[in-house]
Amino acid sequence: MTAYQHHLINGSWIAAQSAETTPLYNSATEAELAQVAHGTCGEIDLAVRAAKKAFASWSRLPVSTRADYVRAIADQLEEQVEQLAQGIAAEVGMPLKLSHRIQVQAPILAWRGTADLAVETLADTFVGHSTITHVPVGVVGAITPWNYPLHQMTGKVAAALVAGCTVVLKPSELAPCTARALGEAALAAGLPDGVLNIVLGDAATGQALVDHPDVALLSFTGSTAVGRRIAASAGQALKRVSLELGGKSACIATPDASPESVVRQVVGSCFLNSGQSCNSLTRLLVPAELYDIYRDLLADAVTRLTLGDPLDPATRMGPLVSAAHRDRVRAFIADSESQGFDLIAGGSQAAIPANGYFIAPTIFGRVPAGSALAQQEVFGPVLSVITYENEQQAVDIANGTAYGLAAAVWAGEIDQGLTLARQLRAGQVDVNGAPYNAAAPFGGFGDSGLGREGGTFGIEEFVEIRAIQMPVARDKS
Ligand code: NAD
Hints:
Layout: E1 2-4, E2 6-9, E3 12-15, E4 21-25, E5 32-37, H1 41-58, H2 63-78, H3 81-92, H4 96-121, E6 125-127, E7 130-136, E8 139-143, H5 149-163, E9 166-170, H6 177-188, E10 196-198, H7 203-211, E11 217-221, H8 224-237, E12 240-244, E13 249-253, H9 259-271, E14 281-287, H10 291-302, H11 323-338, E15 342-345, E16 362-365, H12 372-375, E17 382-388, H13 391-398, E18 406-410, H14 414-421, E19 428-431, E20 449-450, H15 455-460, E21 463-469
Parallel strand pairs: 1-5, 8-9, 8-11, 9-10, 11-12, 13-14, 13-18, 14-17, 16-17, 18-19
Antiparallel strand pairs: 2-3, 4-5, 6-7, 7-21, 12-20, 15-16
Helix pairs in contact: 1-7, 2-4, 2-5, 2-6, 3-4, 4-5, 9-10
Bound molecules: nicotinamide-adenine-dinucleotide.
Residues 143-147, 170, 172-173, 202-203, 206-207, 210, 221-223, 226, 229-230, 244-247, 278, 377, 379, 405, 444, 449 line the site of nicotinamide-adenine-dinucleotide.
């Protein structure tokens, strides 16, 4: 059994002080994988002090040198691809083949992409007689969730490091293998001591990081409820804050869209990672007169999502991350069944493997737009199909939740798709199945958060802007 009992502080793995731990289970077998240490306030303090000390020299290095370190970390992560993909498949439950490509290789590319953008993003610019310079904010407290652990660490750590900040990372207690791999990669890459510190732990460890007076910026990805609490604490201390929170993303299918294409994208998005993606398309808005066509296509598409062990190549959908999370999703399904929504697929009686935190891919039809199922983030494999009568109603329904993280539009003509996309209040809108772009800004409106990650926008989150005014020659006439 693996033990996650060490924190990376000031360039060394230090044994955890507290005997308190969180048990970690294999999501497909329920076998205990490890015990994860709870970092104490004292360990957070040591890590923040190390980061503060390292900031003085790290922030003065040329941007190109910092970018080279970030590339070296990517090279070291590359050495651990197989081990990381296996570890994330066991912890989170994503099928191994997908875990390889989506959970590991894509974020490694993003480490390199962040390094490549750094020099240009942080170069001085000029406004009249002012020189605009980018000043690293200081020590960053980064708190990440479990669903795409390396992605989330990349969005925060790679961007903060090139910007000149030093970091204390508190990863999710449900996905610790990535944090350890990242720590090993940073050490092997020769990152100076204290530039990246990692303290394992639970909510209390995260709270200690949030409350530490020497943390200048909190970069958090997780639930809206915890994000709200962090924003409140950060507000009191006037710390910078960046929040990547939940979502309830809609896909609008126009009457002339291809139902087959719509169903392919929405099923792919909603059930990826067993529905545990913040930007999953979980609400499909279809013209009322086409409901039966969509119903049949969706019911058929779901039959191909074979449930099983993430390590089995035949598996298309794995389990959920934990028993507690599975039970929360089950409660949403039971409530929706009791309300009599049209159950198109799955549901509480559907067959699932005997062990593991599985939920069958579930689709409810004719879901009222104002119902709990259509308004709240389930974060599991549950799709709501909502009917609309006209385009304005579709836009109003799509914009009618507290969230605004992602959305999609499928239209017969691309121009019509773009016109609709411009009316949607979400941080990312995909038209007609457009692919993911790692360099585009990612983040949300409303309850989906504050700030952006990805590309130049993600790096800019970690700098203060300083304007330096230069003397202007006097007009002697
Ligand atoms: P969570 O909010 O329960 O936990 C996230 C992290 O915060 C964990 O490391 C946890 O230990 C820590 N934490 C919990 N309470 C804390 C506190 N009081 N102070 C400081 N830290 C605390 O979320 P989760 O269950 O890990 O992740 C699922 C949620 O994350 C979903 O709502 C999902 O939509 C969201 N998410 C958002 C994005 C995005 O980019 N917008 C990406 C992935 C996940």
